[in-house]
Amino acid sequence: MFAAIAGRLHRIEYYLNELGENAAAMKVQGLIDSHTIDVYISDFSRFARNFNNTGLPDPAFFLKGLEFVSRLKKIFQAELLTDIIDKYYLRLCQRLINSYLSTVGGNIFKSPPPFNLVHLTKDMVEYVNNQKHVSSSIPAGIEDETCFTRTLIQRLSHKPLVAFTPEIIIINNLGLVEPAINADREAIEDILYSIFEFYARKKTSLIKIKIHLDKNLIKLSIIPGDHIKFPIETIDFYNMLMDDTGSYLSFEDNDIVFNFMNAIEG
Predict the structure, then answer these.
(1) Average pLDDT by consecutive 10-residue portion of the chain (266 residues)?
(2) For 78-163, where are the E strands, in sequence order?
(3) In whole angstroms, how far apart are CA 254 and each of 35, 223, 228, 261?
(4) Deepest in the core among 61, 123, 161, 183, taking most CB within 10 A?
(5) Residue 143: Cβ-neighbour burial (10 angstroms; 0-12, 13-18, 19+)
(6) Ramachandran region, residue 211 (left: φ > 0; alpha: ψ -120 to 50; beta: rest)
(7) Residue 192 · residue 124 · CB < 8 Å
(8) Superfamily name and number for 115-265
């Protein structure tokens, strides 16, 4: 993920230099120290690969991980990237860091407020569809150098999921029931966006989202139109990012299913 962000910044930096906007290119280059991040990742990867041969006790691995993640947290300042990198992608990176720190630190879980699952799903689909278009209007104050530079960077950084975006259809089998579920709303949004991105990269022509009841569960099923296998290790990774409300992801045939354990009708 951090490599992908660095790659996006390098691309924008290249275009700015090509346009003769060298000062703006230098500004983009300074937003994240990708070289240092690469060094940190390589260092921890070597430690992880060789850990079983070191003879060190198990807690040493978690302490090394804590050092690594703490270093990343200091150098990765998401607020500087909000005009360039998609908010869901930034949040997912921050969630990775904070999830590890919370686990190691033994932070007490706080139950999140309930939210409407149907509304969230519609909002996500609308967001993905709107990404296909970038405004061609000229903002007020464009003659100001700062405003011009910011607008130019935003236009250069505009990038939908990929050039190909599948059609997404929502099927709500709940009738008039509006399910309000207890789960981490931002985590669900970030994971949904990541799943949409995967299928878009694979050029899936159609994605169906089915929201339905199964006994005492509210389920959200993502059904790809093409028989493309989603990597199971990624589902395991997503489950690590889920909260402690009992929500989890699973496979049913080729579908990815969100299972919300403590759903309440609202």
Answers:
(1) 74 80 80 81 84 76 83 79 76 77 65 84 84 53 61 63 71 74 86 87 87 85 87 86 78 90 54
(2) 114-116
(3) 39, 7, 8, 21
(4) 183
(5) exposed
(6) beta
(7) yes
(8) Histidine kinase-like ATPase, C-terminal domain (3.30.565.10)
